[in-house]
Amino acid sequence: xxxxxxxxxxxxxxxxxxxxxxxxxxxxxxxxxxxxxxxxxxxxxxxxxxxxxxxxxxxxxxxxxxxxxxxxxxxxxxxxxxxxxxxxxxxxxxxxxxxxxxxxxxxxxxxxxxxxxxxxxxxxx
Length: 125
Hints:
Layout: H1 2-27, H2 36-58, H3 64-78, H4 81-93, H5 97-124
Helix pairs in contact: 1-2, 1-3, 2-3, 2-5, 4-5
């Protein structure tokens, strides 16, 4: 039974990782001094997490495989705290202190704000 659950996480995580990598490649020309790929991926992962949770809860979907695939797998593979941490460290190391702090504050504040606004908007409908 556990192998089936791990397979859904594995498949979702792989798809999320490929999506994150694709975004980073698409935005690399804009990422001269700021890690736009990771920033956008983490923000989109937070938005998608909220949307997936709302859909799963509102439709009373009890399919644990879907939850594991979308939430744990896809969103987990799509967002990347380790890359975020490394890129922030690299900004600090290269003397871009202000950009490092903008990256930290904007990533956290915008991700949480997006999640909050999506849930707030949904519950007002």
